[in-house]
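Need a sequence for this fold. Nothing fancy.
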């Protein structure tokens, strides 16, 4: 350790009245990391699952996202094509190489061009799957993986996210429980993205601009029924 770094850390320890080997403090940190204490959970999110889905839709829409509900997973490709047509976007998407998405009947959309892999600069539309979603704020939760390149969440101007209704939870605390249950506490993803509505900024003259630092359109295709594909992911 460099002398400068040791001096800084030493000053912090002294201000906290800790010695160089404070085992009590280390034990407290270890207990917190292993115990996963839950924070406060708002009462409005502690509602039945169907009501959580409705709350998510309301909150996501309020944050300038658009939501289209479909009855089953087989309806997703047609819903993607319908959205592209309605927004006058090209019939071409860059899709995450996710087995759950690959299993959908894309071949039934003859005019749709589907590329796989991380986003490149020329991509205008991406399609990804959400791990889960938070009802209390209308927030999508996506995590990095070989089958979920993070560039798809930020580079294209239009982001289409496929979300299972069964993956909607009440609060942020529930998301971490779900991730730990699926992957194990020691194998959490390198990156977890919480996405609430399109990218936006009001830094310039306090005028809200969509697409300031990422997609300016966020479209959610919500699958109401059928098996959720994210249990165990």
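Here you go.
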């Amino acid at each position: 350790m460099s002398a400068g770094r040791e001096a800084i850390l030493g000053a912090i320890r002294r201000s906290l009245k800790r010695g160089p080997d404070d085992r009590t403090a280390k034990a407290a940190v270890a207990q917190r990391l292993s115990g996963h204490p839950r924070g406060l959970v708002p009462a409005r999110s502690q509602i039945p699952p169907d009501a959580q889905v409705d709350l998510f839709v309301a909150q996501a829409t309020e944050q300038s996202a658009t939501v289209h509900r479909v009855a089953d997973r087989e309806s997703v490709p047609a819903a993607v094509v319908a959205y592209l047509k309605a927004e006058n976007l090209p019939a071409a998407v860059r899709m995450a190489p996710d087995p759950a998405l690959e299993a959908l009947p894309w071949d039934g959309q003859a005019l749709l061009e589907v590329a796989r892999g991380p986003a490149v600069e020329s991509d205008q539309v991406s399609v990804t799957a959400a791990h889960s979603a938070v009802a209390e704020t209308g927030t999508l939760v996506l995590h990095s993986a070989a089958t979920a390149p993070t560039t798809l969440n930020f580079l294209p101007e239009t982001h289409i996210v496929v979300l299972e209704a069964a993956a909607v939870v009440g609060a942020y605390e529930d998301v971490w429980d779900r991730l730990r249950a699926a992957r194990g506490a020691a194998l959490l993803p390198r990156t977890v993205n919480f996405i609430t509505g399109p990218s936006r900024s009001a830094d310039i003259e306090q005028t809200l601009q969509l697409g300031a630092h990422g997609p300016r359109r966020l479209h959610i295709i919500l699958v109401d029924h059928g098996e959720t594909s994210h249990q165990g992911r």
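For context: The helical segments are 3-15, 23-35, 49-62, 76-86, 99-102, 172-183.
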